[in-house]
Design brief:
The complex is a heterodimer of chains A (about 300) and B (about 90).
Chain A: E1 7-8, H1 9-30, E2 36-53, E3 59-63, E4 72-79, H2 83-89, H3 93-96, H4 108-115, H5 122-132, H6 134-141, H7 145-154, E5 158-164, E6 201-204, E7 210-216, E8 226-229, E9 232-233, E10 235-240, E11 243-247, E12 255-260, E13 266-273
Parallel strand pairs in A: 6-13
Antiparallel strand pairs in A: 1-3, 2-3, 2-4, 5-7, 7-11, 8-9, 8-12, 10-11, 12-13
Helix pairs in contact in A: 5-6
Chain B: E1 4-5, H1 6-17, E2 29-43, E3 46-52, E4 67-77
Antiparallel strand pairs in B: 1-3, 2-3, 2-4
Classes of the chains: A alpha+beta (about 300), B mainly beta (about 90).
């Protein structure tokens, strides 16, 4: 709502819906002590408003003031719908977790152009692009193709780092003291990038049971990515958009770790089990590998005094 | 006239359908067409709509506009499975 008393149509709908939900909830609470209750089945409102267009091109309503003639009449109908109807007609929660256009770095005018073709987040843009092509989207949204491509590339799902989570403490005490230079979280400089065909190598201490994958947009509409070690699926202990914890078998001997992201790309790492002599938190910090295989890939072999990049 | 939130006004309208006391009469369905004075305001950062009966049935003076509304209420038996959602 702005100073002139006008409000966006979606604000209006949200506000009325919230009020109607309150009515239903109150009626349901009353039913606890009554065998029967009334339910508000539907409601329609002939709202007398002045319709305005703001500087961003968005439609705003302003309710008519006293003795103000010439208002438009907007007929709005609200009705109750069932859960299956909601699921059929709304965007899934998984889809809505995708970055918004604003979070993807698009300017307000660009956001508005994409919203006009029904795109409100990056997942919707990707879906439209995969079905119609980026050229078509750009033509209908009246945006440069390069701008759309850049936004799509920058917001692709990717794995940026893999870390072994600390293994369970062994019954024998006194782990070897860490070198003073090896400070967890201290930025490290990457090694020169290996060829794209060679996946980064991650050395693990024996007994490592979990790996933490850091990244961006790790969860898609179908859920978290599939993670395989030597083509054997791994269990996922924790999943979030920027973090994934996978469980690896206790007796594994290393091999190829593949993360199959929801855009079809695969991030690969080579796991090797070290006997513990050369293992350390720094050596266990995996390099980043772009989902496309030619991202910021760096590998193992960092000396403890090297700086870490996370 | 005191302004009430739209939800409170609608609840009052629904309640008005239920007969008071135990008259042995049950209204199973009702449709109300009523004029409402509706206004919006921002309360704690969110848009809230207020609604109430018109100030007067006469077109006189300096009055806010009246918005015609229609609501339909039905008597329902709340089942266990309905308790989780609409």
């Amino acid at each position: 709502m702005v100073g002139d008393g006008s409000f966006l149509v979606e604000e209006f709908i949200d506000s009325i819906t919230s009020q109607l939900d309150r009515v239903q909830d109150s009626l349901r609470i009353k039913a606890v002590n009554r065998p029967l209750t009334y339910a508000l089945k539907d409601m329609s409102l002939e709202l007398k408003v002045f319709v305005e267009l703001d500087a961003q091109g968005k439609v705003r309503f302003r309710t008519g003031g006293p003795n103000e003639a010439g208002a438009s009449v907007v007929h709005l109908g609200f009705t109750t719908i069932t859960k299956p109807m909601i699921e059929e007609n709304t965007v899934s929660l998984a889809a809505s977790r995708s970055p918004t256009l604003e979070e993807a770095g698009l300017a307000p005018e660009e956001q508005l152009r994409l919203e006009r073709v029904g795109v409100r987040n990056m997942a919707q843009l990707e879906r439209l692009q995969s079905s119609t092509g980026v050229q078509t989207v750009a033509r209908y949204a009246d945006m440069p193709v390069d701008r759309l491509k850049r936004a799509l590339v920058l917001n692709r799902p990717k794995v940026t780092a893999v870390h072994p989570t600390p293994p369970r403490p062994a019954p024998v005490p006194a782990p070897a003291p860490r070198p003073p230079q090896s400070v967890a979280g201290k930025p490290r400089m990457p090694q020169p990038q290996p060829p794209a065909s060679q996946p980064p190598v991650l050395k693990l201490k024996p007994g490592t049971r979990r790996l933490q994958l850091s990244g961006h947009r790790l969860i898609g509409e179908a859920g978290p990515p599939k993670v395989h070690l030597n083509n054997q699926p791994l269990g996922i202990a924790e999943a979030d958009d920027d973090r994934l914890v996978v469980e690896i078998p206790e007796d594994h001997l290393g091999g190829t770790l593949e993360v199959r992201l929801h855009d079809g790309s695969v991030a690969a790492y080579e796991l090797s089990v070290d006997d513990g002599e050369s293992w350390g938190p720094s050596a266990g910090t995996a390099g980043t590998a772009g989902a496309d295989g030619h991202g910021d890939a760096w590998s193992d072999g960092w000396a403890p005094d090297e700086e870490e990049m996370s | 006239m005191a302004w009430h939130e739209l939800a409170e006004t609608l609840l009052e309208l629904v309640e008005s359908v239920a007969p008071q006391g135990e008259p042995g009469l049950v209204v199973t369905e009702a449709e109300l067409e009523i004029p409402l004075e509706v206004g919006g305001a921002v309360d704690r950062g969110r848009l809230v709509f207020y609604a109430g009966a018109p100030h007067s049935r006469w077109r006189t003076g300096f009055l806010p506009p009246v918005h015609r509304s229609r609501i339909r209420v039905e008597l329902v038996e709340l089942l266990e499975e309905d308790a989780g959602g609409r």
